[in-house]
Amino acid sequence: MLVSCTTTRWVVTEQNAVDESVEPRVILEQQVFVLENPPSVDNPVAGFQLYQVKDLEYIERVKVERNVQQYKPKWGFVLLGLTGAAISAVAANSNLVFTNASTTQKLGLNLTAGIIGVLSFTNLQPSGDPIQSGETKLMRQSGSEVVRDSSRVQPSDTVFADVSVRLNDEELFSQTEVPVEEGVLELNLGSFSEEVNGRIDESSEIEVSLNQSEYQNLFSFPITQFLAPYVKINSLVVSLRSTPEEEDLNVMTEVGQGSFLELVENSSDDYYRVVYEGEEYFVQKDEGSIEWLSTAESGSALVFEFADLPFGEIDVEHSMPVLKPNNPADRGLVLSNGFDNDVGQRQYLSRDHQLFETYLKTSLRLRENQVEKITSEDLLPGLSEVPGMNQDGSLYVYLSGFAEVREEEDQSEIYLISDGKNGVKRTALNEIIEDLKRIEPDALFLFIDLDYTGQIDSNSNGFARNGSSGLLQRTANRLVRDLPNSAVVFSNRPGQQSSLYTGIIDGNKRHSIFNYFLGEAIQQRRTRISDLVNHLDRNVDYMSRRLHDLPQEVQAFGNLNLNLAR
Known about the structure:
Radius of gyration: 46 Å
Number of strands: 26
Number of helices: 10
Structural class: alpha+beta
């Protein structure tokens, strides 16, 4: 009565189970940019993160699991079977059912009784739920699955991407080889507000293309996502009205030309609905125009952060060779009108001076008391106090600041120009040269690194006759005629800028291009002026055009056989 048994069987638990024992097949691998920081009106900088994306194909198989099942007899069926077996046995071995049963009949009835009795115990029913053994295995292949795996790219080496920004198929911005530092690229969409104004409405979209290697990533940004419409006041004085009607009683206040008012509604044919100091007013449409602006301060299109590096970290600021022993008769002068000058501001000017002084003291072995710095809006008083050298020793001069070309007595001349607390002050470069001649060194090395302001009249008689090169030649001759052992090197021609060595391509060298390669030439022991000038010729103009698309042609005059380390 207590008969029971257990059996095991394999049961399908999953038709498409991934076979992890087999390496997946890579069917696609690429790097893509993902927009992680969408732009907004308050912060129009879109932040993109570079991801490594792989499409992996995994094999799928049928998964089965072994289950253990207990069974027990069906007691009703057992009772019925035993009853039938008993009747068959009684019929075979007594005369109660059959009289005079033959031997064959008795044998058949006994066999029937045995078979029925045995079969009554083989018809079992499950007892309880199946017990899961945890043993599984994968059978035949049932298919495949493609899984996309992505991870942030944080390369140790900087990767580059080509950036393009377009509006209505017109290119607004394009830059190749933009560095992607640690897989992050930021783009200030608000910086394009001036370029797109007048050509956009609420339905316009900006398209951004980021190409990295052979992969292209396209993004589309509605104008309303990062710019807000404002009404720019074009008339001298405009009335702000409480109602869209031209009446004297509804004039609440007045605003001046150039004001910007946030636009609320533009559905009327005659009036803009604007916000001013938290209140809504109406402005006539013929007195203003719509411009799209970002509430954040606009900056450059690409956003890069340059870490603050102390002096000595740039490559030309260290590893300076010693080129000569100290000569007590040598002197160094640093002259500049570039500080506290409203004419302009030149970044890294102090660092340029520090670099020149460091090379004087390290490579040319000048002591602290042999180097003098004169920085003021009028250089002549300080220069007149420099004692004479009586044709003994070398004089190294670096002149920087702002200048302009003026027509004086039908001849173009270069003037240093300062605009400070005492007003505008102009000093002729020829006067500075005369003071340098008065010092009477045995040899004079003059490096002139000026930014020219204003427009140069190339049609003036003097300039048209000689050109910028002739003007520099004539200026240098005033020195060279009286001091044959002198060389004058100009960082650029009049009308050209002395550009900074900073850009998204080559990073920030924190010096003017001229001063950087001047230091590099000395660092490489190119001390003969002809060799030094050749180094400047090969690099300064090329780098200025490469970084800023501006020419900067170095000009040199005088005795180019002189040696800085003489």
